[in-house]
Design brief:
This protein is α/β, with parallel strands linked by helices. The protein has helices at residues 4-16, 32-48, 59-63, 65-69, 138-141, 149-159, 186-196, 215-223, 240-246, 252-265, 284-296, 323-347, and strands at 22-27, 53-58, 76-78, 95-96, 119-123, 125-126, 145-146, 165-169, 202-205, 230-236, 270-277, 299-306, 352-358, 363-366, 371-373, 382-386, 389-391, 394-396. The longest helix has 25 residues, at 323-347. The chain is globular, with a radius of gyration of 21 Å. The two termini are 31 Å apart.
Length: 397
């Protein structure tokens, strides 16, 4: 469930449990809807495989283990730190969840393979030291901690033998490094990867906090051809008062200026972002500023979320926007974002795109992360195609 980090960790769990009749639900807690979907997945999995062991892990399980242990479908609950340790899967404890805030290391596991995926996901950072008022994830992931560059490079070197594209993942990716000797930055890590893994053809970064994109990382994003022209920024809102109440560290002007700089330096770069509709105290005028941010930041890969109050977070105690208004604003954001994305896809007709072929062999993603349908090809290859048209939100080659 949820983020790319969960996907990366899921591959490690798959390797740890090879050959066992076990279902693992790797949960998400980013919104109340994500928790609801986790519970639905648990019930569905039990119906489909009534005789299998069923274990719940991930952020929702870390934050509220007792509620999942109480579900009749669940055999065990394992925490976010424990799920990556072989010994946790050999015990019979009903609840094995430690204080995530006490964890100081991350990713000693580093998945050996991603045989079911054309791209491989490598965790380089976990946890978050920031406390955005709407977010419960730090309580599921703990404080920020980084994987030493040597371990990352070793893993990418191995994965590059069978994967043309690597995605670096983390909870707060741009906070990589301060906890390591010498306090390296994410930009320095990317530089080292590109130098020491010449076989790697494509490198992609997951969500970035724009306020932490320094000059080194900016130069790589805009000049390095192996770093894909796709930047997903964690913007969350387009109104300064809302951003302040979210306890974000950037202003609206900061976001617009960053995107303008990125587009000026690399015109074809595609911008994605997360936006929350209906945050507590949001007025219609505040929402209008977020709606306008789609155009002002040229967003073509939108992730729109209706605000969901998470128990224990400061935002849950703020004056709430009426649920029907939240829902309507999220729908308006999605409609506007969808229209922008459609125009962008249309603008790519006639262009040549480098596409990583994914299963089942007739689809993949371009460097700008547009989805492309193409003639059957070998999964894992990178092919050059000319875009002919757009159908159902997909580029057709």
């Amino acid at each position: 469930m949820g983020c790319r980090l969960n996907l990366a960790e899921g591959e490690s769990i798959r390797a740890l449990l090879a050959g066992r009749d076990t279902i693992v639900v790797n949960s998400c807690a980013v919104t109340n809807e994500a928790v609801k979907q986790t519970r639905q997945a648990i019930r569905r999995a039990r119906r489909e495989q009534p005789g299998a062991e069923l274990v719940v892990t991930g952020c929702a399980a870390q934050i509220d283990p007792a509620s999942f242990a109480a579900m009749p479908e669940v055999d065990r609950v394992i925490g976010n730190a424990e799920k990556l340790r072989a010994q946790a899967w050999e015990t019979s404890e009903a609840i094995l969840v430690q204080d995530i805030m006490a964890v100081r290391e991350t990713a000693p596991h580093l998945a050996a393979s991603f045989s079911t995926h054309a791209r491989a996901f490598v965790e380089v950072q976990n946890g978050c030291d920031h406390r955005c008022t709407f977010c419960a994830i730090p309580y599921g992931r703990g404080n920020s901690r980084s994987v030493p560059a040597g371990a990352v490079i070793d893993r990418i070197t191995a994965l590059a033998e069978s994967h043309a594209e690597i995605v670096l993942t983390g909870v707060d990716l741009t906070s990589y490094g301060p906890d390591l000797p010498g306090a390296p930055s994410l930009g320095q890590l990317v530089e080292r990867i590109l130098v020491h893994v010449p076989r790697l053809r494509r490198l992609r970064l997951s969500s970035l906090d724009g306020v932490e994109i320094d000059d080194r990382l900016f130069a790589l994003l805009t000049r390095e051809p192996r770093l894909q022209p796709h930047v997903h920024l964690s913007l969350q809102a387009g109104d300064d008062m809302v951003l302040k109440r979210m306890k974000r560290r950037h202003s609206r002007a900061d976001s617009v200026a960053l995107v303008e700089r990125l587009k000026a330096a690399r015109p074809g770069i595609a911008i994605g972002t997360d936006l929350i509709a209906g945050f507590p105290t949001e007025t219609e005028a505040m929402f209008a500023n977020t709606l306008a941010l789609l155009d002002d930041c040229d967003v073509v890969h939108p992730h729109i979320f209706p605000y969901s109050p998470r128990a224990g977070t400061p935002a849950a105690r703020m004056p709430q926007v009426a649920p029907e208004v939240v829902k309507a604003r999220a729908a308006r954001l999605r409609d506007a974002a969808g229209a922008r994305r459609s125009r962008w896809l249309q603008s790519l007709i006639g262009s040549e795109q480098q596409v990583l072929v994914e299963r089942p062999g007739d689809r993949g993603h371009a460097g700008n992360f547009a989805e492309v349908r193409l003639a059957p090809a070998q999964v894992g290859d990178i092919v050059t195609v000319t875009i002919k048209t757009v159908e159902d939100g997909k580029l057709i080659a």
